[in-house]
């Protein structure tokens, strides 16, 4: 048989082998394709399962979060309930301990003796504010020739007040006028408020608020001079207080830094109404020579008749002292020269102050009262007060520029060791023995009568564990503040005010140095003959 490559048999075998190879390759390809499709199908299934897993996990997470939040809330509620139970148990234990302590003290009460009868707990009696024995006196704040000022508080009360005790020997008219003024000060936040007034056999008593921030005089002495913001703030509050007094027909007549007190917050309080003139309406004039020399207006020194304009002159002196630390007149001069300079010489106005303040002082220090600002014109509209919101100021919504050192509160259980003779006098006034019954003095502020307290429930006598309140000192207090207190000024007659007798007259008057000429004063100048020859002979 021919097996050559070109023979038909060889070609047939080759063809068969090729067909067989192609068939095997096709089968293999089909198998591979099937495997690939199976793999793709499995991968798709896995992807679907993973997708469903991813969709299922957030829902489970949300459910798990809700479950945890619910458990946390339950735990917090349980803690709160346990805490409340602990507080109730603690309060119950404290109440039991207090009851046991109280019962022990009641058992040991020496006043009950061996009778076994327990005295009941009764409310403390409400003290009578018009009875001097209803007050606990803690400290002497100041003394004068005819009286003193005491720090006191009503029995069973925490609020402390200043009580001015004045003998009935002299100055009754002044004290009655001061009491009438104190009745109306409650409506103005920049005046010292009066709580009441009453009398016994030999003395008169004025109850006033205790102002614990010191005085403007102390502040000026401490700082030398004040900044412009402080000057504007304090003077604006003084303007509100003065205008309120003048609207009521009252002239203060003794306005000076020692009578301008500061509250613990830093607001001013005009005080000491012992020299006020009442009923000053219209063109009414008064001629009395009274006040403090350094702050007297020229018309007072001349006794030519004056009105509320004298308060604006005193206000200007205080304004100058706040700005420069000194008065516009030399107070170190002998009295005669000083009085003459106050009448005729030009006042000293500091040069290193603002133009507006300088102009304000010039308008206030007009020697002619008819041209003096305050008497004429509207002082609130002066350029110096351009930035002042008067509505907010009157409501005390403007914060003070300075918080003063507060006088420490005295413990309500502290007792003044000084013997107080006025406590031993009878409360009822017997006029048959020549004792004076002062008319128009007594009053009691309704607001203070309601707020005087608290009147707490106490056992009689009060138990030894009764709490006492003594507010902490706001700031360290220097030693000099213990002697220079708001009420350290002497009472009537005032040391710096004019007293009698006068010691002769000046031969001639100094020539006029002012456009407004005033004649020589019609009254004798004090100390004029004490080797003070104003015009020696040539």
UniProtKB/TrEMBL annotation:
Record domain AGC-kinase C-terminal: where: 386-453
Residues annotated as binding ATP: 164
Statement: the UniProt record of this protein carries the keyword Nucleotide-binding: yes
Source taxon at top rank: Eukaryota
Keyword Cell wall biogenesis/degradation in record: no
GO BP, sorted A to Z: intracellular signal transduction
A single MF term (Gene Ontology): protein serine/threonine kinase activity
Ranges for region Disordered: 1-134
Compositional bias per record (Basic residues), positions renumbered to this chain: 13-31
Bias (Basic and acidic residues) ranges: 37-108
Keyword terms of this UniProt record: ATP-binding, Kinase, Nucleotide-binding, Phosphoprotein, Serine/threonine-protein kinase, Transferase
Domain Protein kinase, chain residue ranges per copy: 135-385
Record-linked SMART domains: S_TKc
Name this protein carries in UniProt: Probable serine/threonine-protein kinase DDB_G0277449
Lineage: Eukaryota, Metazoa, Chordata, Craniata, Vertebrata
Gene from which this protein is expressed: LOC108713626
């Amino acid at each position: 048989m021919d097996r050559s490559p070109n023979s038909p048999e060889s070609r047939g075998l080759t063809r068969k082998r090729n067909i067989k190879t192609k068939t095997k390759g096709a089968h293999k390809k089909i198998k591979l394709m099937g495997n690939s499709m199976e793999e793709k199908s499995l991968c798709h299934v896995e992807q679907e399962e993973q997708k469903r897993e991813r969709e299922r996990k957030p829902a489970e997470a949300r459910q798990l979060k809700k479950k945890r939040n619910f458990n946390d809330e339950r735990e917090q509620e349980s803690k709160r309930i346990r805490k409340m139970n602990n507080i109730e148990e603690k309060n119950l234990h404290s109440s039991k301990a207090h009851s046991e302590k109280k019962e022990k003290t009641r058992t040991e009460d020496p006043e009950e003796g061996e009778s076994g009868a327990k005295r009941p707990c009764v409310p403390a009696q409400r003290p009578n504010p018009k009875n001097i024995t209803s007050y606990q006196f803690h400290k002497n704040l100041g003394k004068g020739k005819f009286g003193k000022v005491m720090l006191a508080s009503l029995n069973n009360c925490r609020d402390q007040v200043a009580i001015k005790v004045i003998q009935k020997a002299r100055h009754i008219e002044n004290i009655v006028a001061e009491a009438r003024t104190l009745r109306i000060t409650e409506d103005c936040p920049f005046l010292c408020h009066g709580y009441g007034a009453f009398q016994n056999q030999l003395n008169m008593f004025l109850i006033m608020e205790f102002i614990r921030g010191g005085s403007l005089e102390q502040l000026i002495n401490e700082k030398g001079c004040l900044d412009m913001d402080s000057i504007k703030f304090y003077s604006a509050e003084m303007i509100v207080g003065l205008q309120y007094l003048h609207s009521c027909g009252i002239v203060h007549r003794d306005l000076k830094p020692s009578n301008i007190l500061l509250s613990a917050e830093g607001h001013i309080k005009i005080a000491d109404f012992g020299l006020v003139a009442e009923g000053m309406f219209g063109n009414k004039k008064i001629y009395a020579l009274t006040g403090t020399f350094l702050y007297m207006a020229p018309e007072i020194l001349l006794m030519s008749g004056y009105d509320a304009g004298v308060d604006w002159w005193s206000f200007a002196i205080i304004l100058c002292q706040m700005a420069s630390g000194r008065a516009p007149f030399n107070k170190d001069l002998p009295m005669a020269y000083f009085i003459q300079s106050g009448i005729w010489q030009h006042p000293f106005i500091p040069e290193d102050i603002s133009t507006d303040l300088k102009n304000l002082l010039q308008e206030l220090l007009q020697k002619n009262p008819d041209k003096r600002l305050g008497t004429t014109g509207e002082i609130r509209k002066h350029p110096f007060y351009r930035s002042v919101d008067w509505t907010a100021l009157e409501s005390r919504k403007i914060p003070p520029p300075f918080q003063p050192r507060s006088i420490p509160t005295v413990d309500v259980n502290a007792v003044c060791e000084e013997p107080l003779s006025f406590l031993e006098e009878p409360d009822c006034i017997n006029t048959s023995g020549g004792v004076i019954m002062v008319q128009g003095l007594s009053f009691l502020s309704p607001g203070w009568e309601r707020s005087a307290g608290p009147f707490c429930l106490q056992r009689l006598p009060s138990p030894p564990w009764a709490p006492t309140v003594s507010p902490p000192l706001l700031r360290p207090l220097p030693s000099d503040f213990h002697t220079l207190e708001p009420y350290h000024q002497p009472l009537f007659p005032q040391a710096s005010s004019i007293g009698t007798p006068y010691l002769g007259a000046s031969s001639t008057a100094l020539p006029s140095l002012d456009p407004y000429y005033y004649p020589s004063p019609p009254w004798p100048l004090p100390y004029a003959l004490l080797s003070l020859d104003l015009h020696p002979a040539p």
